[in-house]
Specification:
Distance between the termini: 30 Å
Order of helices and strands: EEEEEEEEEEEEEEEEEEEEEEEEE
Radius of gyration: 15 Å
Largest sheet: 12 strands, parallel
Helix content: under 10%
């Protein structure tokens, strides 16, 4: 990974109008250890920030992410001791905030004091596998518009074994849906261990 990267106080306005999972048209991407991203406004990209591990100690703070065709911020595959804090994520095409421990555990990560609104397809905040992760003091509003719920803790999508995950002092407002693919009601707070 890159080391000691510090990005602050600018905007990234894309022109992505459809979701193509093979296209890397993300606002921020890659791997950054011992780094910070502060007060960056990202709109109209596929993902606000898709961070591929392994790497350690990245902090996103004061982010404003709008109108993505997929996730707001995703910590993927071995991201450790990293966080998203005091950020506002709205109108994402997939999870607003997520850790996805696909084949390599994410651990020691936190989503803290964020507001996530209107994720269209998936969840406000999702933890897929990994261990010792924290979801604390967030507000999730109007999620599950077509699928998903408010906060989702799961072992899914080829994730590593789900270990301890603390979900504390969050506020969930209008965050549930009848998932048309799964054919069951998804809760504002829901758990899934099918994998």
């Amino acid at each position: 990974p890159s080391v000691n990267v510090h990005l602050a106080d600018f905007a990234i306005f894309g022109d992505v109008q459809e979701r193509n999972d093979s296209a890397q048209v993300n606002g921020i991407g890659g791997a950054m250890s011992n780094s910070t991203v502060d007060r960056v406004w990202i709109e109209h990209d596929k993902v606000g920030a898709w961070m591929d591990g392994p790497f350690d100690n990245l902090v996103f703070s004061g982010m404003r992410i709008r109108d993505t065709t997929a996730d707001g911020i995703n910590f993927h595959k071995g991201v450790t001791n990293s966080k998203v804090t005091n950020s506002d994520i709205r109108n994402t095409g997939d999870d607003g905030l997520a850790t996805w421990a696909e084949s390599v555990a994410d651990s020691g990560d936190s989503f803290d004091h964020n507001t996530v609104q209107y994720p269209i397809l998936a969840n406000g905040i999702a933890i897929y596998g990994g261990h010792d992760n924290f979801v604390t003091d967030n507000r999730v509003i109007d999620s599950g518009l077509t699928q998903g719920g408010g906060i989702h803790v799961a072992q899914r999508f080829a994730s590593t074994t789900l270990g301890r995950t603390d979900v504390l002092r969050n506020t969930l407002i209008r965050d549930d849906a009848l998932d048309p693919n799964l054919q069951f009601g998804v809760g504002a707070l829901w758990f899934d261990a099918r994998d």
